[in-house]
Amino acid sequence: MTKKLYEYNVDESFEICLLIKSADVRMAKNGNPFIAFTFQDQSGQMDGKYWSATSDDIAKYVPGKVVVVNGKREMYNNSPQVKIVSLRLTDA
What we know:
The protein is mostly beta strands. The chain has 1 helix and 5 strands, in the order βββαββ.
């Protein structure tokens, strides 16, 4: 059985399917766009940043899509966060 997002411990790596609840395109201090995501599964919601997003990334990673997230659970300002290593749309 696959673990849910909130069942992973801090610093534990994972590859799971998550719903994109929200995707907010922002500019980093270096001028590169990034996407501030809120991901969701049955265990709850968690934020994550996708750095150096391309225009293709911005077009395809939109709310309502299900993605496979390869990442790690971290803490940022006492809140759980997804450190995104890679992201791809599901085949479904």
